[in-house]
Each structure stands twice: as structure tokens, then as C-alpha cells.
Amino acid sequence: MFFLKLSLLMLLAVAPDLLVHAETSVTCEGNNAVLTCGAGVLNILSANYGRTDSTTCSAGRPSSQITKTDCYAINTLYKVKSRCEGKSSCVVPAANSIFSDPCYGTYKYLRIKHSCVVHKTSVTCEGNNAVLTCGAGVLNIVSANYGRTDSTTCSAGRPSSQIAKTDCYATNTLSEVTNRCDGKSSCVVSATNSIFSDPCYGTYKYLSIKYSCVVHKTSVTCEGDNAVLTCGAGVLNILSANYGRTDSTTCSAGRYSEQITKTDCYGTNTLSEVTNRCEGKSSCVVPATNSVFSDPCYGTYKYLRIKHSCVVHKTSVTCEGDNAVLTCGAGVLNILSANYGRTDSTTCSAGRYSEQINKTDCYGTNTLSEVTNRCDGKSSCVVPATNSVFSDPCYGTYKYLSIKYSCVVHK
Description:
The protein is elongated, with a radius of gyration of 24 Å. The strands form eight sheets. It has a four-stranded antiparallel sheet, with helices on one face. A four-stranded antiparallel sheet has the order 2-7-4-5. Strands 8-13-10-11 form a four-stranded antiparallel sheet. It has four domains: 3-117, Rhamnose-binding lectin domain (RBL) (Jelly Rolls, Sandwich), CATH 2.60.120; 120-214, Rhamnose-binding lectin domain (RBL) (Jelly Rolls); 217-311, Jelly Rolls; 314-408, Rhamnose-binding lectin domain (RBL) (Jelly Rolls, Sandwich), CATH 2.60.120.740. It is α+β, with helices and mostly antiparallel strands. It has helices at 76-84, 96-99, 160-163, 173-181, 193-196, 270-278, 290-293, 354-357, 367-375, 387-390, and strands spanning 3-4, 23-28, 32-36, 41-51, 71-72, 89-93, 109-117, 120-125, 129-133, 138-148, 168-169, 186-190, 206-214, 217-222, 226-230, 234-244, 283-287, 303-312, 314-319, 323-327, 332-341, 380-384, 400-408.
């Protein structure tokens, strides 16, 4: 099978001028990755702590430290998302203490691909309703607070005693707004104590919500059943996932109250498990069971909630000896998967002897890293389908270079 990237681009259901170029950050082991987005917030697309080529971060290193090029820390994406997703900036140390050591003795680096999502902010004074809409897209709640963090917002006509406290936070705001709005095309949230309780008695509060509009689907699967995700001609891009329980109504039919009252239950390994099983595939099946995710809250009846988008990709197939030419017009290339070898007996078979095409389990392990280095983030590129570029993964077999990619619109 193809060697797939950890993550693809999240598609935004907003005007093209809000789509931004995906940037790649490479940080050598022992240093810090610093990601910033200015007025936007970070959207982590893919990440790996390890080594996938022998040239990156190789200066001054003995060959024994850079020859292993199939090194992946499977928790990288989850760790980076936890630290950075939805923030305007973040710092991630490229260190074993953060990701553990996926290949002892190899000098590693942290490669992160991210985009910057321009978000909207809604501010609603206490006693009024926040109305969020996304047109053809759905709401993705980035952050929220019901309280007061400055003395000027919603201050007109208020005595100083009601606006002086500026460290007021309702800790349940994000979960409440997320449950009411996330994944919907529109929602209404009342900025009242009856919704969020009163985090600072006597202070006049307001509800501040940051959100973006995205194209995604949400799958909810009750414990014991299977989540089935499909994307037709596209491939899956996993945006978020949780195995647990965050409300008392979902998957509650026929359950005892003690099985559904705990609503702060999160499976910390859910995103990494679902990503590993589904990312970059046209379809996948994920059992919503403790055997897959472990049990984050014993005695609670759980469910698996997955948000995903479908990325439409293109496929380029180039016979050995020719050049693959990839172009994206006004966009830039996002390489999804690649293989130099042979996985069937029909592609590029015209005029070939049977012994040249009957081996169908031939994979060039360095294909993805080579194609990514040559093409990712460029408007066009040329890749020779030759042994001199990829080495020869199966001597005597006539090979071909197959590349899956998408075109990313940027400013």
C-alpha cells in the first residue's frame, strides 16, 4: 500500500481569499519549533518526529545517525495538535521527552505542516443572544469565554463596580458552546447565567466566541458499534475525534442515568488511533470499543464522535524512464502518497515480458520523502521515474511512479 502522510489539508468553506498557503516547519532535534499565525489561528495538517530522508538536519552527523529513513513517532500529530491547534502561536520542542524516541541512535527532526485559519469573533453582552452562521459551511468553535477579560467591552452605562473585574472565566463555556454549535451551519447561544452559571457575581459579563467555518462531516457511533467513514473519490482527513461522553443525550436511549451523567469523559488516544486507521484512505471502519481506545470513564456508556473532511485528489502515473509532471495552476501541490515500484500487472505493461510485470508487491520506501521534497508547496514540479532518483526496489521488474496529490489554494 502507499506510504501515506499523517494528515491532509482541512478545507475551508469560506471565500478563496481566506485560504492560505500551507507552510512547513522543520526543526532539528534539540531545538524548538515556533509556529505563528498573526491574526489567524493554527491548523495543524501533518506532523512527524523522526527521520524520512538522509539529508535533512544531517550537517556534522555521522552516517550511522542519519541512515535510518523510515522513522516515525506515531504520537506526533496528536501531541502537536494538543499544543498548537486553534492558537495564534505555539512552541514545540523537538525532543524525545515530548514524543518519546521512535528510533534510538538516529538524529531526528520535527516536520510540521500547518496553515493559518482566519477566524471570526462574536461578542455578545449578557442577556442577549449570540447568533453564529456559516452559510454553506459548518461551525468550528476555536475558543469561547463567558465572563469578562477587559473593562471596556459591553461597558456602556455600567457602573465601575460591574466592569472592574477582568479575570472572570466560566470554565464550562467552551464545552457548552461546542455542544450547541460545533458542526452546525448556524446556532443561537444565550449569554446568560442560566446557560453558563455565574463565574463572577456582580460583574456584568459578555460571551466571546472565536470560530471558523469549515466543510466537514461528523460521525457519531454508540459504544459497541462500528464507525464507517467514506469519501467516495476523495480521501479522509481526520479533523478531531473523541471516544467518551460530553453530553447526557447522545446514545442515551435505554440507558440508566448513572451511565450517561458523566459528561467530561475524553479518550486521550482517540485522535491518534482514528488518524492511524483512517487518514488518507477512501474509507475505513473504526470500532467504538474499549479494546481499541481503552476505557476513559468506567461505568459510563460512551460514543465515538469523529469530524472529518474529504479531500479530492489527483493521481499521476508515470512509467519507468519518463518524467512525472505535476502542476496546480494558481495553487500549490500537497503530496498525499507516492510509490515507485509495481502493485499490479497491467499498469505500464505494454510490450513488456511477463517476468517484468508479474511482481506486484514492489515498493520504493523513499518515494514519498523524495517526491515531497521535490514538489510539496510548489506550483509545479518534475520528478523522473528512475532508479537513479529512488534506487531500485525490485531488480528486473519494470516499474512506474504513482503519485496522489491535491492542489491547495493560497493567497
